[in-house]
Amino acid sequence: MVKLNKIYTRTGDDGTTGLVDGSRCPKHSARIAAIGTVDEANSSIGHAIAAITDETHRAALTRVQNDLFDLGADLATPAEDGDFAPSEMVLRVVLSQAEWIEQQIDALNENLEPLTSFVLPGGSEAAARVHVARAVTRNAERAVTAMATETPVNPAASAYINRLSDLLFVLARVLNDNGASDVKWVPGANR
């Protein structure tokens, strides 16, 4: 359980931050960039939730937000030996979390007409906010893959962040009247 009595510690004044195992790393490292961008994605999802009225979608995204905290903890826990097994002391994203996202995508996609064009990120306010969260999530995925070039990353964590942007894309279409209000891209329309 997390207990925060004091928000500032002054331990990061030297440009480093503490990891779960007690080690420290530079705040500009690929690991901290990945953790920070996952936090941005989480915040973007929270902003999207504020515009969504359907309780099922709100609950699903709140579950995702919780999973993103798990992902942040996973990324903040070094595993130099490549051991990504969760334990009582080590929180890791597990494959079932990514599989849950796949199930959500499949369920949401059932009532959508297949795309015949790319869609512009917009439509309703809720859909537009979900599109922003999708774009931020893609950025988080790039940060996680950049981290993986320097240190091992849990494969389940990589799968999770990759699937999440797909879920957000499909949800944005659902929030646009099941795709009926999607704004279609017209290639070369303004030439």
Characterize the overall form.
elongated
Report the total helices: 5
Order of helices and strands: EEHHHEHHE
CATH architecture: Up-down Bundle
Q: What are the low-pLDDT stretches, counting only 5+ consecutive residues below 50?
A: none
Side-by-side strand order of the widest sheet:
1-2
Overall pLDDT: 91
Q: Given the helix and strand composition, which structural class is it?
A: mainly alpha
> How large is the radius of gyration?
18 Å
In the CATH scheme, the class would be Mainly Alpha
Q: Looking at this structure, what is the CATH superfamily?
A: Cobalamin adenosyltransferase-like
Count of beta strands: 4
Number of domains: 1
Roughly what percent helix?
40-55%
Termini separation comes to 58 Å
The fraction of residues in strands falls at 5-15%
- Report the sheet with the most strands, covering strand number, pairing sense and barrel closure: 2 strands, antiparallel
Question: Remind me, CATH topology?
Answer: Hypothetical Protein Ta1238, Chain: A
